[in-house]
């Protein structure tokens, strides 16, 4: 069998691509590189097919692909075939080519499904390992900074406390106030049917102090401050500022992560307490309007029937929620690679993971305190 060849001849004043041999599928591998690298000069080119001994659909596709590529480069291509049979085959192949590249369907069946589950499970395992490693490194840097207080970056810490705490007070107060109003209104609608309107105070106090106050505050902080942590540090990583810091002998964990983690651990309990007060005020106002429960009666019922442990349980949860939110946010920022699109993806993932883990932690705390009888 004659091996196919492709030669470029520019001697005629125009580029001529001469094909010879058997251009069939089993021999395409020998000329693929020649077809890919050929680059005729000028605005016209002629492909001479007369030297071909044999041509099948595989060879015709290779010629059609070459013709399409040259025409895309602005070169007018002419096919020379005295017999006409080869040109007809090439035209048929060109007509059969899809206008757009198709999308490969995902493999179906039990084995691909199991493989996909295995890959996702392995990915989750790697993510958990990476997160635990990041938490360990953060705790190590925290301990090292405690031993050497001069390494504390007070200005960065105060700035982050202002950003995550003071600037978040308006939205936290508004959210908690409305939650208290809704709880009071809905509770009144149900308790009125049994003549037990006064117990709406117990409903509002326990639900806000024990669960909703700190939980909803943590969710707001995760969406507001957690996303800001990921976006800011992630953008710095994209701009290679973290590499520059390491070059200068600065540790990004110590400089960027610790101030954010510590600031959130300090400020989230304060925000949670403010949310509790705002929620109780909203509930008291709606109880007064809807049920006629005066503020003095509301305060009396609150003091007599609400255990201080309801407030303590919510406050105990706050530092743990803060540690989860800040650690996950900064860890996701360290996973950013390449582009601004990666920053957006990891910011979204950071918020989703933080809220999910906060809810899981809240459920664990609820079970734990319930078992303790608190």
Question: Could you give a quick summary of the protein structure above?
Answer:
The protein has 374 residues and is α/β, with parallel strands linked by helices. 70% of the residues lie in helices and 8% in strands.
Write the layout of secondary structure elements.
Layout: E1 5-9, E2 15-23, H1 32-37, E3 44-55, H2 57-72, E4 76-80, H3 85-96, H4 110-147, H5 154-164, H6 169-191, H7 200-238, H8 241-247, H9 252-291, H10 295-305, H11 308-334, H12 340-371
Helix pairs in contact: 2-3, 4-9, 5-9, 6-7, 6-9, 7-9, 7-11, 7-12, 9-11, 11-12
Average pLDDT score: 83
- Kindly provide the radius of gyration, computed on alpha-carbon positions and rounded to a whole number of angstroms: 35 Å
Whole-number total of structural domains: 2
Distance between the termini: 89 Å
Order of helices and strands: EEHEHEHHHHHHHHHH
DSSP strand content? 5-15%
Strand order of the largest sheet: 1-2-3-4
Count of strand segments: 4
Number of helices: 12
Low-confidence stretches: none
Largest sheet: 4 strands, mixed
Looking at this protein, list some descriptive labels:
374 residues; alpha/beta; Transcription Regulator spoIIAA; four-stranded mixed β-sheet; 12 helices; elongated
Give a written overview of the molecule:
There is one protein chain. The protein is α/β, with parallel strands linked by helices. The protein has two domains: 5-96, STAS domain (Transcription Regulator spoIIAA), CATH 3.30.750.24; 136-371, no CATH class. Helices cover 70% and strands 8% of the residues. The protein is built from twelve helices and four strands. The chain has helices at residues 32-37, 57-72, 85-96, 110-147, 154-164, 169-191, 200-238, 241-247, 252-291, 295-305, 308-334, 340-371, and strands at 5-9, 15-23, 44-55, 76-80. The chain has a four-stranded mixed beta sheet, covered by helices on one side. A hairpin with a 5-residue loop joins strand 1 and strand 2. Helix 6 (169-191) packs antiparallel against helix 7 (200-238) and helix 6 (169-191) runs parallel beside helix 9 (252-291). The protein starts with a strand and ends with a helix. The mean pLDDT is 83.
């Amino acid at each position: 069998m004659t091996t196919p060849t492709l030669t470029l001849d520019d001697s005629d004043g125009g580029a001529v691509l001469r094909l010879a041999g058997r251009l069939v599928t089993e021999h395409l591998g020998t000329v693929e590189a020649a077809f890919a690298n050929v680059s005729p000069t000028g605005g016209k080119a002629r492909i001479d097919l007369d030297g071909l001994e044999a041509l099948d659909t595989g060879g015709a596709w290779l010629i059609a692909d070459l013709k399409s590529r040259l025409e895309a480069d602005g070169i007018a291509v002419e096919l020379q075939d005295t017999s006409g049979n080869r040109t007809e085959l090439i035209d048929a192949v060109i007509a059969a080519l899809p206008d757009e590249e198709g999308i490969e369907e995902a493999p179906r069946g039990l084995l691909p499904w199991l493989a996909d589950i295995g890959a996702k499970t392995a990915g989750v395992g790697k993510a958990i390992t990476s997160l635990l490693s990041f938490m360990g490194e953060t705790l190590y840097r925290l301990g090292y900074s405690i031993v050497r207080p001069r390494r504390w970056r007070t200005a960065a810490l105060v700035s982050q406390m202002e950003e995550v705490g003071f600037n978040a007070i308006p939205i936290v107060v508004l959210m908690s106030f409305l939650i208290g109003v809704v709880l009071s209104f809905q509770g009144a609608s149900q308790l009125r049917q049994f003549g037990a309107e006064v117990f709406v105070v117990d409903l509002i106090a326990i639900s806000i102090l024990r669960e909703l106050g700190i939980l909803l505050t943590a969710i707001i902080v995760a969406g507001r401050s957690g996303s800001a942590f990921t976006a800011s540090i992630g953008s710095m990583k994209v701009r290679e500022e973290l590499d520059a810091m390491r070059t200068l002998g600065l540790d990004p964990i110590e400089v960027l992560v610790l101030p954010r983690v510590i600031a959130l651990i300090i400020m989230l309990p304060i925000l949670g307490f403010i949310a509790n007060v705002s929620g109780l005020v909203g509930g008291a106002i709606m109880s007064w309007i809807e049920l006629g429960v005066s503020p003095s009666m509301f305060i009396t019922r609150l003091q007599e029937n609400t255990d201080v442990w309801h407030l303590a349980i919510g406050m105990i949860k706050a530092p743990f929620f803060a540690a989860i939110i800040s650690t996950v946010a900064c860890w996701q920022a360290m996973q950013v690679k390449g582009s601004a699109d990666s920053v957006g993806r990891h910011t979204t993932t950071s918020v989703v993971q933080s809220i999910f883990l906060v809810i899981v932690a809240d459920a664990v705390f609820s079970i734990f305190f319930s078992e303790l009888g608190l």
